[in-house]
């Protein structure tokens, strides 16, 4: 119990500065609702007792009083609803912003090691659940408690024996529901996990459709999808089974309560201990109490299901962020080069060593080509230089300052990186080039495209610079995508160029354009080019053979 209460409290703490306002208006919303329910329950008592006894003396005053209370409760609930929702919306916006910002601050290794489909599906599910927690779950779980307490007071004033009996049955109902809370939570967690797996399989099929068709993998991947689908259906069915059982149990409690109340009430009216009006008012209040007890019993397990999602988001938000750190210091009075790797050791987590005592010195405005067999660590050198990964040992510096001293943003501002498969965002060509410098004018974009030998092919496309490149640039050839990425790098105008050349898949014409663009780009810059071909090596004034320095 203590554990559950602390979970509820911690989840409320997460609202931060909105917490106090949220709680005040959650409570006043509950009071407004139950005020309306109570006055509606009591009005028939006044009318019935007056007509049965023929005494209309105080009827008018009482009716005015109840009508006034009803109106006040109504106004309270409307005002509370508005402020409560505003509070929730503000929190939702903050939560989505925090998750989005966190994603951009996580290290590259996190994304390389997780499946994008699964990550996305789990995240969307958890965010929706966390939002639902504050939007409706707290309200649905706590409003019945407020209703229960506020209904019990007039009930006790009307008849305490019958009220005690009803409270006892209601308590049994809540305890029975609470006993299922852990199972509901587990079923929710398993269903969420299975749903994420299912979405991982769908993403694989959608993203790899060409490979699937080429290698006729339809059956293999469909089989995997079917297994994930079966697992999801099994878990969802289990969750539904628990829900159906709870519903049946709660209906049983409702019937039991009504029978007990009717029998006991009839006996009391017969023996003259109560009036018809009181019996009707008690019946109305009793149904409100039973509804409250059942709702609280049902909603509490669901509340913990939503809290589980919030906890997952919290652990995501507290994950270790990207830090650039350099293991060793450079001794003083050394001859400094512009880019320097000194005795660098590196291996990816749990993998074999990629770089071992790796040394490299590049002078300012020097253009060096990095060659070596596939998988020897060429792209890894770029990833270290960009601060995507930290070296295990050794020292990496730019212009005499270690990467750590620059920090991630300043470091990446100094580097224009053109990967083997540049990523183009869904949108126009102009927008994609503009990422290099969001302040650039249209003329500057055209200049960059011309320098990257991209202007001519862009002008031949329908709409020119307004041409929409498709998902990840799928409506452009690989050579065209590379030239758009080079134009983007031109706009960035960074002093260091890292070019992971991928001309091997290009025809002679495209390769010529890409190399011509690269040649323009590296003018008066310090550049590192990964190249496997003589044509690429030709651009450089130094060759660094990775296998020879490892
Ligand atoms: N994110 C990663 N996690 C684990 N291992 C990785 C990761 N990225 C690369 N590797 C491994 O590190 C080694 C070096 O990879 P890298 O991409 O640097 O090679 P490369 O020389 O650029 O290869 P290629 O010429 O084929 O592009 C390879 O054995 C590769 O399998």
Automatic annotation (TrEMBL):
InterPro entries given in the database record? AAA+_ATPase, ABC1_TM_dom, ABC1_TM_sf, ABC_transporter-like_ATP-bd, ABC_transporter-like_CS, P-loop_NTPase, Type_1_exporter
Q: Which Pfam families match?
A: ABC_membrane (PF00664), ABC_tran (PF00005)
Residues covered by the ABC transporter domain: 339-549
| UniProt name for this protein | ATP-binding cassette subfamily B protein
GO CC annotation, single? cytoplasm
- Domain (ABC transmembrane type-1) ranges: 24-303
**Organism of this sequence:** Lacrimispora xylanisolvens
Instruction: Please state where this protein is localized.
Output: Cell membrane
The opening ranks of the lineage are: Bacteria, Bacillati, Bacillota, Clostridia, Lachnospirales
Entry's Gene Ontology molecular function annotations: ABC-type transporter activity; ATP binding; ATP hydrolysis activity; ATPase-coupled lipid transmembrane transporter activity
Q: How does it sit in the membrane?
A: Multi-pass membrane protein
Q: Keywords of this protein's UniProt record, alphabetized? A: ATP-binding, Membrane, Nucleotide-binding, Transmembrane, Transmembrane helix, Transport
Q: Which residues cross the membrane?
A: 21-43, 63-84, 141-158, 164-180, 248-269
């Amino acid at each position: 119990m203590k554990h559950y209460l602390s979970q509820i409290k911690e989840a409320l703490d997460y609202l931060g500065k909105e917490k106090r306002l949220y709680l005040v208006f959650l409570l006043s919303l509950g009071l407004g609702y139950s005020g309306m329910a109570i006055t509606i329950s009591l009005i028939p008592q006044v009318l019935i007792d007056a007509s049965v006894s023929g005494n209309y003396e105080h009827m008018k005053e009482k009716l005015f009083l109840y009508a006034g209370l009803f109106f006040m409760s109504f106004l309270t609930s409307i005002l509370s609803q508005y402020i409560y929702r505003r509070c929730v919306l503000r929190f939702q916006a903050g939560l989505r912003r925090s998750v989005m910002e966190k994603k951009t601050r996580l290290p590259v290794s996190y994304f390389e090691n997780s499946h994008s489909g699964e990550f996305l599906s789990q995240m969307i599910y958890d965010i929706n659940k966390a939002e639902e927690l504050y939007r409706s779950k707290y309200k649905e779980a706590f409003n019945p408690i407020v209703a229960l307490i506020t209904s019990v007071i007039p009930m006790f004033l009307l008849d305490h024996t019958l009220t005690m009996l009803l409270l006892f049955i209601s308590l049994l109902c809540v305890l029975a529901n609470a006993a299922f809370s852990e199972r509901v939570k587990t079923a929710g967690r398993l269903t969420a996990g299975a749903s994420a797996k299912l979405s991982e399989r769908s993403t694989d099929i959608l993203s790899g459709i060409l490979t699937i068709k080429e290698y006729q993998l339809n059956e293999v991947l469909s089989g995997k999808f079917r297994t994930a689908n079966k697992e999801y259906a099994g878990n969802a069915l289990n969750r539904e089974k628990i829900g159906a059982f709870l519903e049946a149990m709660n209906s049983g409690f409702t019937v039991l309560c009504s029978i007990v109340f009717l029998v006991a009430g009839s006996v009391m009216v017969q023996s003259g201990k109560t009036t018809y009006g009181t019996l009707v008012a008690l019946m109305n209040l009793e149904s409100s109490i039973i509804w409250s007890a059942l709702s609280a019993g049902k909603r509490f397990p669901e509340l913990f299901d939503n809290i589980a999602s919030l906890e997952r988001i919290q652990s995501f938000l507290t994950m270790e962020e990207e830090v650039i750190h350099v293991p060793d210091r450079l001794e003083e009075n050394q001859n400094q080069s512009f880019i320097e790797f000194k005795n660098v050791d590196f291996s990816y987590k749990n993998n074999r060593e990629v770089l071992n005592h790796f040394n490299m010195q590049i002078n300012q405005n020097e253009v060096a080509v990095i060659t070596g067999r596939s998988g020897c660590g060429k792209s890894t050198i770029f990833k270290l230089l960009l601060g995507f990964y930290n070296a295990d040992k050794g020292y990496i510096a730019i212009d005499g300052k270690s990467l750590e001293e620059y920090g991630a943003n300043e470091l990446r501002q100094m580097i224009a990186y053109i990967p083997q498969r540049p990523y183009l965002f869904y949108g126009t060509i102009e927008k994609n080039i503009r990422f290099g410098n969001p302040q650039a004018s249209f003329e500057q974009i055209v200049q960059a495209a011309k320098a990257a030998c991209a202007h001519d092919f862009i002008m031949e496309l329908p709409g020119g610079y307004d041409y929409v490149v498709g998902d990840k640039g799928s409506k452009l050839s690989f050579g065209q995508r590379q030239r758009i990425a080079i134009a983007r790098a031109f706009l960035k105008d960074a002093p260091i160029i890292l070019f992971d050349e991928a001309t091997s898949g290009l025809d002679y014409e495209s390769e010529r354009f890409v190399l011509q663009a690269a040649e323009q780009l590296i003018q008066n810059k310090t550049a590192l080019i990964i190249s496997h071909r003589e044509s690429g090596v030709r651009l450089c004034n130094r060759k660094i053979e990775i296998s020879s320095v490892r």
